[in-house]
Amino acid sequence: MSKLFFYTRDQFFNFKSDQMSAGFEFLSMSKLISSQKIESLEVSQQYYVDISSIVSFVKYDDSQLFNFEQLFNSFGENISFICDKVYEKDIKYIFRYIFDEFSDVEVERDEITDEVQEISVKESSSVKKITDLDDAELDLFFSKFDEGLYGHECFKEEFKELVTSFRVFNKLGEHKILSLFLMGDSGIGKTEVARTIHKALGSQSKLAKISFGNYSSHDALNSLIGSPRGYIGSDGGELLKRVNESDVGLILIDEFEKANNAVFNYFLDILENGKIINSQADEYDANGYIIVFTSNITKENFTSKISPELRSRFDYKGVFNLLTDEDKKKFVRFRVNQIITKYYQLISEDVPDKLYDTIISEINVSQFKNMRDLNKKIKDTFVANIKP
Ligand SMILES: Nc1ncnc2c1ncn2[C@@H]1O[C@H](COP(=O)(O)OP(=O)(O)OP(=O)(O)O)[C@@H](O)[C@H]1O
Ligand SMILES: [Mg+2]
Q: In this predicted structure, what is the pLDDT of residue 349?
């Protein structure tokens, strides 16, 4: 068993230069991932090995813990261990059989400090959140939301109640993030829910969207939160990048069922604590955010795929059904109008008489089970009818 020293971000460089003048060498644990590498260290040299980079790995994927416990046994007496203090709580528990003593390094703080943090993560207060709206703004939000999303009336009712309660309990500090888990067939408006919230919050930026369909399930967590400091190509991960690019408090997680257990646990943490932390230990306060998760899984698979702890943390879980023919017709009328107006303004004022009525009469909405197909039908019918 050995001792572990914690340093804070603003102590590290002073600490390192002090200790190097005293003859120590510094290494990241990622350089020593096998016991041969550990054996190749000089016995007469004193080393500090920084284990910060392995914390996020082991925290979300504890299948590696066994290997690490074994690996630590091969270290000699000439090695001391250090770690970024942000990991203190996690590491004291995760590595409880490796370290039996912990203390903080004793050193003055570095001079250039906070600037670094400010660049990497933007202030969450500059972002427009549902919890920030006043009553008039909230009414406007709901009317834009209702207008933008066709059908799904029950969901809309429930969403209104959820938001109302969220705004209260968020202020009381009891409800950090409003989470919606939407299931159902393709092309019926699950992702559209997030797009509509995004517009209704008045965003001028891109929607913060992560799609697990784009990641291989194997290293989904790394793509999401970046690889740990010290690894080749280490970065801050896609999640914080997307969140930083957006001006509203909304995150869309598409095809969530394609992620893996490490990712599920990671989101469990976010929903619980309201904080997004990446592998570089950048921390973002997501208090007041809405997170929309979408998935094509059935109700039955939902129970087998997603752990009960995570399931119980979603504020809304629901299966979206196909829109009624009446709602599909509303959608068609809106789209046809929109297309004709744009065409008239941007391309030509020479529009055939009764174009709108013709297109509407040629589309039988009951044939369509996917709104994408219906949208394509609208486009095709439009093009066929403006041909001379
Ligand atoms: N209820 C709806 N209101 C308005 N537009 C809708 C609605 N449902 C679907 N659409 C339209 O259909 C397109 C497809 O819907 P959406 O992207 O939400 O599908 P999805 O349910 O997320 O499907 P997938 O599982 O394939 O991702 C959207 O771009 C949107 O134009
Ligand atoms: Mg979708």
A: 87
